Amino acid sequence: MEKKVKIAILGYGHIGKKHADMVFQNQDCELLALIDPKFTTAEMERQNPVPCFHSLQDFLNSPLTADVVAVCTPNGLHFEQAKTLIEDGIDVIIEKPVALSSEEAEELEKLAHQKKVHIFPVMQNRFSPPALWLKDLIESEILGNLFMVQIACFWNRNEHYYAKGSWRGTKNMDGGTLYTQFSHYLDIMFWLFGDITNIKSKFADFNHSHLTEFEDSGIITFDFASGGMGSFTFSTSVWNENLESSLTIIAENGSVKVGGQYMNHVEKCIIKDYTAPELPATNGANDYGSFKGSAQNHQHLYRNIIDFLRHGKEIQTTTDDSVKVLKMIENIYSSN
């Protein structure tokens, strides 16, 4: 019987708890430790028998040895914490974004290569049934030449989400809407269609100027380096609840639209001499109480990581792709 992969969770907020659940549910994993500076003595006792630590250094100084640490802390902390873990020879899962600059992400990638450890970026939407179907559709060239792609992400993020004193909404810890909310969908776009050029952007802050240090809405137009043109429209100023995350493709041999709140539903498939398959059901959204995030696909990410570590199977979310998506985000912001 193979040994379980020992995983520690760094950061035990909303997303850290999601990662802990994934580890608990995976019979090939063991939840080794939880690390969060906000743990109270009572909380640490409640988590028993899982050891709890107030800091990453406390954990590294302990006799426990992790195979992997999942970094689930605020965005602005990812780089330094991941760097510390990599230097210690520990594989890391890093929630999106891997870092708040492509230079930092490249530094992590280079260091991981030197230390012979692995970085597993969290881009779990690649595992959703509609996304996998779209990937197969594009790679099979059934659609022919690509003409246009339109992506629309319209979400709600209110004062409960951007609570006073929170890291959310700050430039140095959050980064901006394209890093925190919509990098998943920029990643899907990059994964399917490749890099973009001739970028033109317009941003606005409609109803978050008292809550954040950056835009809440934007319209981005561009050309794909591989051919065709596209647009990416986003907002977190939608009233009351998330409205949609959709992707529409217009191509030589047909058109496709994947919609729903989280690109979780095939709404239209009109392709010459092609019948769309029945896809497996898509998981519901991550529900964090006062807000909802992307669809629940972390279990597929963990399965992929375990299969890679044990059997050398191809990892589906690479650091190289994460660097390229970060560069895309930087180019979008600089084009404004």
Gap between N and C termini, in Å?
Answer: 55 Å
CATH architecture of the largest domain: 2-Layer Sandwich
CATH class of the largest domain: Alpha Beta
Q: What's the main sheet like?
A: 7 strands, mixed
Domain module tally: 2
* Coarse structural class: alpha/beta
Which stretches are poorly predicted, pLDDT < 50 over at least 5 residues?
none
Tell me roughly what share of residues is in helical segments. Answer: 25-40%
What does this structure look like?
By secondary structure, this protein is α/β, with parallel strands linked by helices. The protein has 2 domains: 5-121, Rossmann fold; 125-296, Dihydrodipicolinate Reductase, domain 2 (2-Layer Sandwich), CATH 3.30.360. Helices cover 31% and strands 26% of the residues. It contains 10 helices and 15 strands. The protein has helices at 14-25, 41-46, 56-60, 78-87, 102-115, 129-140, 177-180, 183-193, 298-311, 319-334, and strands at 5-10, 29-35, 52-53, 68-71, 91-94, 119-121, 146-154, 196-204, 217-224, 229-235, 244-251, 254-259, 265-271, 285-287, 292-295. The strands form 3 sheets. It has a 7-stranded mixed β-sheet, covered by helices on one side. It has a 6-stranded parallel β-sheet with strand order 3-2-1-4-5-6, sandwiched between helices. Strands 14-15 form a two-stranded antiparallel sheet. A hairpin with a 4-residue loop joins strand 9 and strand 10. The protein is globular. The relative contact order is 0.15. The mean pLDDT is 94. Residues 5-119 form the Gfo/Idh/MocA-like oxidoreductase N-terminal domain. Residues 134-256 form the GFO/IDH/MocA-like oxidoreductase domain. One of its GO terms (molecular function) is nucleotide binding.
